[in-house]
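Team,

Forwarding the record for the chain on the shared tracking sheet. I've put the sequence and predicted structure together so nobody has to dig through attachments.
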Amino acid sequence: MNLLPKNHKEFRQKEYWDDFFKKRGKKAFEWYGEYGELCGILHKYTKPADNMLVVGCGNSTLSSDFYDVGYRNIRSIDISDVAIRQMSEQNRHRPELVFEKMDLLNMAYEDSSYNVVLDKGTLDALMTDETAEVVSKIDTMFSEISRVVRIGGRYVCVSLLQPHILTYVVSWFTSAGWPIRIIRCQEVDQTKSPEDRIFPVFVIICTKFKKMPNMKPVLEIAMSSDGQLTRLETADGLIESVRGCQQFCALRAGLEKDGGEGGQEEASLDLSAPGEENPKYSLFLTDRDKTKNSNLKFAAFIVPQGREVEWMFSTRDGRRQLAESASCQRLVVVHLQRDHTFSTLQDIQDQLSGYVMELAPSNLPPNTQVPFLSVGQEAVGSRVERCRGQSGMSGEYVVEDVDVGGDLYRRLIFLARPNLTQSEVALKVIKGKNKKMKKVIDTLNLASTYHSLMIGSLGLYLAKPMTVLVVGLGGGALPTYIHSTFPLSNTHVVELDPAIVRVATDQFGFKPDDRLTVSTQDGIEYIKDLSQSGQMSKRFSVIMLDVDSKDLSSGMSCPPQPFVQNSFLRTLALCLEDEGMLVLNLVCRDSLLRQQLVKTLKEIWTAVIGYKLEEEVNEILYCSNTNKLKSVKDDECKDAMSQAFKLVNEHVRKARKNKQEFLDVEDCMKRLTISKSS
């Protein structure tokens, strides 16, 4: 199956073309390639016996090049007296080659005179913008070409296809009932320096058919002169494919221009199956610092299905570390996207190799075999969709079972952020009543490390019954584990989205009862109502905030900004017992935002203790006024948290009859950071 680069909507088309018009200067014609680069395509759509008309010939040698390989019925026209006299003089020794002054917009030829009208750059020169005057001129041009071309004949145009030209060509000829085929001429690229290969050259072949009522347009594209033709269903699909190719070439040339220096913005590219809205592959390019020695100049890394959400593969910093681990100068990290089927690594390699090679450094030796790497023996991995639904608040979501190196998980993914796990539970395989094996929720184990760290706070409250408030349900793994493992706990969950409550119940084993309750409402409103209700006897031992932000532009994606405002946090503090604790799951990539948050927290709580997960985006903040953490040195504060974690370990070991440590206390102590109010 052929693949097409997918156009990203944010691609800066105006800057792309402004750069071209600055760079091309007086050498405009060279950008379109010479006969030697174009002939591989042009000869497929012309024959020596064809009656051929070359429009806007200027001083191009294209007509004489065709003549010299056996084409004899060629007439070339231009509106310039100077160009026609010059070309006639230069081609006196080619007596059958005719050059004639004529206006392309008002040709004197009879109807159906030509098999082929050939245009190299003339359309681009005439259609300078989208003003009514220019569009009217191009409409006349196409009408004249249509008039002089025979049924079954072709208009063959070499163009760079600026967006307004591309849109008009596709619209005009599909409306006229002509099939359209667009072929990228990669051979032209090879004559340019790598950083100048930013503007791909296309050959458009429009074939004149009699217009039939209700005829479905025939729209095709190929990414190279010898590449597979792909048929597209809609004109918009054809336009997007061309623009995707232009973006791909801009990306590739930009890599060479920047020199692959460390610190550049990470480049990415989506590849789609024809007619598919969702990409099949996403490619991320990571370059190491050139000053470092690398064992590999270039490689591609295939991320198995289900592992694309891991820090190493889902973040720029993670991919940089992956390139460091592989000691690779330029690494292409490939995500296998959902909604598609993948059989073997070899099939993936066959589909991607052409695009991957175009992203290789320009100094790579010819005929280099680029290695495709992956994770151990996992091959393409396994990802099975269980259900899909729509949330009015978070958009489309999917629940899927994945196999990660033999470990099974069930995940909730919001498709607005497809490489981020919203919620996750461990699975195990057991034998059912009918002796068939089936997957069930593994209630003995937590899949998320940050959930384990949040539960570590409960060690301070094990001496008596505790009340826990969890704001943000997700799949319900966190409150379910607390409920089942700590029998003296009473847990209440607040979740804004009713769709998520249904998913947690139907897919993730969340089962409310008299000790595990849930209310569907806004967490901020719940806290405010509780603080104003006069029911302070219902204050909580621990409040856990595990809420993500729907604002993808924010530097803090968890929790949302309203949850970290000073006024709300003070209200929340009123809902805690005097010795209670706020446990906050923080995902913040903006150091200034984090600094401001910690400052705010220290104004309300005497101790703010942080734990940043290694190779994760999450950080857990423990905030409390408990005497166990108050007015003690940092080491003593760490010791108090260490003791709490040890008590949780002992409790879990007894409750679960599990010898494995729930928390790595020694590692936790190394990573805890202490902030005290002044």
